[in-house]
Automatic annotation (TrEMBL):
Record keyword Transmembrane helix present: yes
Provenance organism: Novosphingobium fuchskuhlense
UniProtKB keywords: Membrane, Transmembrane, Transmembrane helix
Signal peptide start-end: none
Statement: the UniProt record of this protein carries the keyword Transmembrane helix: yes
Top-level division of the source organism's lineage: Bacteria
Lineage of origin: Bacteria, Pseudomonadati, Pseudomonadota, Alphaproteobacteria, Sphingomonadales
Protein name according to UniProt: Diguanylate cyclase
Full-protein interval shown: 258 to 545 of 556
Stretches assigned to the EAL domain: 24-274
Length: 288
């Protein structure tokens, strides 16, 4: 009987594993082809100065518009792209597109991009990025790189050299999802960050949880002490915004200000606000 149960269990388990493996290889193939076909596009989330309510820039968030799966979250395809060795190509293609978009925005607006830990282990990454900035005629000081602390567990010497050369060019480095890792505080001393981004788990529970308020209070005083400006992610309600403003002068982002939007939607909105550079300025020089 045990044998039969064992066989049954096996028989029950096997097709699922097969389905999963099949799905996984289909997903990998989809990502490879999607990259060739230009199915990966940048979306943009507004970043706001919470003191003045002014728009300061956008965070680029990767999206996959897949003919097969629809609009796919980066939580799904970034880890797979990392595993199959395509993250650098994917990320750099998206950054190139984002630089083209951001070039048409008011030059006071910044662009933040998320960078995978794997990219920071490639000593040539900094050079390629700087080359892209030159090609797009984009001021390095307008670019912010967001890294999570998983970056910081291995090859820290390589990462530090790379980060330092990016910083020397004027690029800002932010510590993303702050407070969620198991060694957040230690990481602050590991690399010369320019900004802390408070993870949205603390921000979105601000109204309901006294603990979240204490944590944000602590991060805020840490930021003041280390002269590190702070961005709060995941602001969804006016109540959370009001509560946050009592802690200090933060930047912020979240669905309260709108969902991440396509380049075209952003352009339309900036045009309405008078925050697009004139088309004449961006058009290629007429041959005189
Ligand atoms: P992240 O950098 O922490 O980005 C914030 C995530 O929270 C985004 O999810 C954003 O859409 C979402 N979000 C923003 N405001 C709110 C809010 O008010 N409420 C809620 N519930 N969510 C909010 P998304 O776009 O799915 O990205 C997830 C993560 O994927 C990002 O987290 C980032 O770590 C990663 N990612 C995105 N684009 C890239 C990329 O080009 N390269 C790499 N390496 N990672 C990326
Ligand atoms: Mg981010
Ligand atoms: Mg984050
Ligand atoms: Mg995140």
């Amino acid at each position: 009987q045990a044998k039969r149960r064992g066989r049954n269990r096996f028989a029950w388990f096997e097709p699922n594993m097969e389905t999963e493996l099949h799905f996984r290889s289909e997903l990998e193939q989809g990502i490879r082809e999607g990259l060739q076909r230009g199915e990966f596009v940048p979306y943009y989330e507004k970043q706001i100065d919470l003191e003045t309510g002014e728009l300061t820039g956008f965070e680029m968030l990767a999206r996959w518009i897949s003919p097969q799966y629809g609009l796919v979250s980066p939580e799904v395809f970034i880890p797979v792209a990392e595993e199959i060795g395509l993250i650098a190509e994917l990320s750099e293609a998206l950054i190139a597109l984002a630089l083209e978009d951001a070039r048409t925005w008011d030059p006071r607006l910044t662009l933040s991009v998320n960078i995978s830990p794997l990219q920071l282990r490639d000593p040539w990454f900094a050079q390629r990025l700087l080359k892209m900035l030159v090609a797009a005629n984009f001021l390095p000081a307008r670019l912010e790189i967001e890294i999570t602390e998983t970056c910081l567990h291995e090859n820290i010497a390589v990462v530090r050299t790379l980060i330092t050369s990016l910083k020397n060019q004027g690029i800002c480095i932010s510590l993303d999802d702050f407070g969620t890792g198991y060694s957040s505080l230690a990481q602050l001393r590991t690399l010369p960050f320019d900004r802390i981004k408070i993870d949205r788990s603390f921000v979105s529970s601000l109204g309901q949880s006294a603990d979240s308020a204490s944590i944000i209070e602590a991060i805020s005083s840490l930021g003041r002490g280390m002269a590190l400006p702070i961005t709060a992610e995941g602001i969804e309600t006016a109540d959370v915004l009001a509560a946050l403003r009592r802690f200090g002068q933060f930047k912020g982002q979240g669905y309260l200000y709108g969902q991440p939007a396509s380049a075209e939607d952003v352009k339309r909105e900036l045009a309405a606000l008078g925050l697009l550079t004139s088309t004449a300025e961006n058009a290629p020089a007429p041959d005189a």
